[in-house]
Amino acid sequence: MNGIPPPRRALVVTLRFLGDALLSTPLVRALKQRFPDCAVDVLVFAGTQGVFEGNRDVAHVITVPELTTAADTLRQVRALWRRYDLAVIAQTGTRPFLFGWAAGDRRIGLVSPEWGKSWWKRMLLDRHAVFDPGGARVLENQRIAQLLGIEGMPAVVAPTAGWGPPEVASALGFDPMAEPFAVVHPSPRWRYKQWTAAGWRALIDALHARQLRVVVSGGPGAEERAYVDSVLQGVEAGKNTRRDGRMSFAQTADVLRLASLYIGPDTATTHLAAACGTPVVALYGPTDPAIWGPWPARAGRAYERVAPQQRRGNVLLLQNPDLACVPCQLEGCERHRGSHSECLDRLPAERVIDASALMLRSTE
Predict the structure, then answer these.
(1) 175 and 315 fall within a common domain
(2) CA distance linking residue 114 with residue 360, whole number of Å
(3) Could you give phi then psi for residue 274, rounded to 5 degrees?
(4) Are 25 and 52 in contact (CB under 8 A)?
(5) What gap in Å lies between CA 71 and CA 84, rounded to an integer?
């Protein structure tokens, strides 16, 4: 094990958004499978702890605020001081590094490829892997596991609220075992990842024509819900069930496990659906899928940077390669989170409808 004794207690530090935290679950799973007697805790931003609900690999979830003062960070460092045999730092930033350095008697993690920024971190780590900015994030986490001699392909672990079909039926208002349904997630957190309202309306009509109920998921934010309002204007209401802003991340996972299909943009819920094994159609614009593509439930491998469509297990990822700038990895055409993205604005509804039909046929 490269000179690091088997840990009795380990801490995984992953201070990122929901989707990023979800992609760290393979690292936790690998640790627990390699060291079954080790209690594995995770340190995350407050608000992302739902990613680990019902996860049997995790002993405890510790949260810290996303925004904090230097004095608060110092207090948190003191509270973590040497509580663990091993700290695993799943990102290159200074704040996560400080938490991991304080927490673990032994420390492993990712470091920046730039020596000038990372030399001191390399000196304070027992083992390190050099971060690849263009690599798939889930595979970067797996490279950390390899520092401990842990091999094998990663498996993203979706949360659960413990819902079975009866609880899902109660939440949705219909029997999911008797009425097949698709989940659509029109509104990402940021505008620049958003497809068109007209496209969503055409897709929902096509799903209705295939005798599918449509369950609408989404976040609780006012702008997200307003966009869903605009999408559903003029759509036949009797076949739609809105649950946007009304379910936890883990409850959403339990619903997704029973869905016939999921369609959504580059957002945490799309990664969640992929991990749940749901047939997924993922709509990607500026984001590079080679880095951030949804990892399928089984037999995963990295995506190409650009292609009209790419199939990976239960995921079919669509892009609009007609524009030479795709994927730009920028925040939309206007370079801010509230911007539009022409590559998504020009993604035809017919392509999404055809992809949805293909994924439905593959499960019949």
Answers:
(1) yes
(2) 46
(3) -60, -45
(4) yes
(5) 23
Task: Evaluate whether residue 157 is within a structural domain.
Answer: no
**Is it true that the peptide bond before 327 is cis, omega within 30 degrees of 0?**
yes
Is residue 33 domain-shared with residue 176, that is, in the same domain?
no
- For residue 216, what is the DSSP state? E
Query: What tokens were used for 144?
Result: 């950390």
pLDDT digits (tens, 9 = 90+) for 119-147: 999 999 999 999 999 999 999 988 999 99
Task: Say how many CA atoms lie within 13 Å of 120 toward its Cβ.
Answer: 7
Residue 41, domain extent = 9-146
Cβ neighbours of residue 84 closer than 8 Å, sequence gap 6 or more: 7, 9, 10, 11, 41, 103, 104, 105
Nearest to 242 by CA among 257, 253, 231, 258: 231
HSE toward the beta carbon, residue 350, CA cutoff 13 A: 0
Q: What is the pLDDT of residues 323-342, one digit of tens each?
A: 999 999 999 999 999 999 99
Q: Which residue has the higher pLDDT, 148 or 206?
A: 206
Per-residue model confidence as pLDDT tens digits over 192-212: 999 999 999 999 999 999 999
Question: Do 128 and 184 belong to one domain?
Answer: no
Q: Could you tell me if residue 155 is inside a domain?
A: no
Structure tokens belonging to residue 201? 């309306």
Q: What is the pLDDT of residue 144?
A: 92
Global pTM reads 0.94
